[in-house]
Amino acid sequence: xxxxxxxxxxxxxxxxxxxxxxxxxxxxxxxxxxxxxxxxxxxxxxxxxxxxxxxxxxxxxxxxxxxxxxxxxxxxxxxxxxxxxxxxxxxxxxxxxxxxxxxxxxxxxxxxxxxxxxxxxxxxxxxxxxxxxxxxxxxxxxxxxxxxxxxxxxxxxxxxxxxxxxxxxxxxxxxxxxxxxxxxxxxxxxxxxxxxxxxxxxxxxxxxxxxxxxxxxx
Length: 218
Description:
Elements: E1 8-11, E2 27-30, H1 31-34, E3 40-47, E4 52-57, H2 65-70, E5 71-77, E6 80-86, E7 90-97, E8 100-108, E9 114-120, E10 126-135, E11 138-150, E12 153-159, E13 164-168, E14 174-181, E15 184-194, E16 200-205, E17 208-217
Antiparallel strand pairs: 1-2, 3-4, 3-17, 5-6, 6-7, 7-8, 8-9, 9-10, 10-11, 11-12, 12-13, 13-14, 14-15, 15-16, 16-17
């Protein structure tokens, strides 16, 4: 489920407003793919059904290098940092406040413009994500995701209306997806094999191997 419904991992330390921000420490990643343990340098993921592999590299702060390379720093003052990145449809505008992602706007020429706004708890963990879509030049609420935790670990991300829920284990790996359509519930379960650092290297969907990862460390 590679859409806005997938939770976001927000990397970056909570910084006081009068402390300079290092842009290389700020980034946005999908939890379902990139909650990694240890100083990871590169991840090669192969999806068996599609016979396709992709490789992602990270800097020393755990931020994807392509993200850092492709974005432009628009402004940075009073603890607020704004980046702009080009996309196939237009551009992304990411706004960070005191080290965490506050909003992500996708302004597309041939797609509907969207805005995602995040809220955090006292530990700077995201607890709520609100999606807005542009209609007649105004951003209107479209949906809300709620994040739940146990002992500092993400347990689930679910739509506030109950239409879907994604579950995670203490290692940050997705264990199940549940969706409800027309009153019918659908459940897909996932299991994993892990390396010595606790990162999954094999992903099984309903017992069938569907993806593998080769992980190299810094």
